[in-house]
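Exercise 3.2. Students should predict the tertiary structure of the chain below and write it as structure tokens, then compare their answer with the key that follows.

Predict this chain's 3D structure.
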Amino acid sequence: MSDTTGGGSSRWKTFGERVIYDNPWVWLGQVDVELPDGERFWHHVVRLHRAAMMVLVDDQDRVLLLWRHRFVQDRWGWELPGGLIDQGEEPSETAARELEEETGYRAGRVEHLVTFQPMVGMVDSEHVVFVGRDPEKVGEPTEATEIERMEWVPLASVPGLIKAGEIWNSGSLVGLMGLLMPEG
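Answer key:
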């Protein structure tokens, strides 16, 4: 296992930043950086709100997936329920809230699965994924415009959906592959 603190010889130094664009959802700016070789320049950086999502699994080894269209890529795909973490909200609360809003389900048990950054280098957008078990249907989804349909999909068919390109967004890929990964 590598040292997560690093030795420092390849660490970039920062000297400040300037805002290009800022709103409640996205910050775009430039950071004054110096490389280990002494080269110094302004590097573009995007900061997005943290996000949380839920892999909801039932007692038949099925996962609840949402069929959604993403206009930026103009593409359909299966996704996990999730969304942006509100100010003062814990990631687990966000995952549970989004699960209920988007699907009408609650998880009886929730545990942290993985935290990751989907696009390091220029984008800061932490994603926190949870596994929910013992699902309970508590009502109808209140976010009716976000999904085309939802389905309980056998976990055994998830690798095929990934290979077919039907599961393609980073949060869903990381969450589902993390759940399917053998413990070692």
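Discussion points: The helical segments are 91-103, 158-163, 170-180. The chain is about 15% helix and 45% strand.
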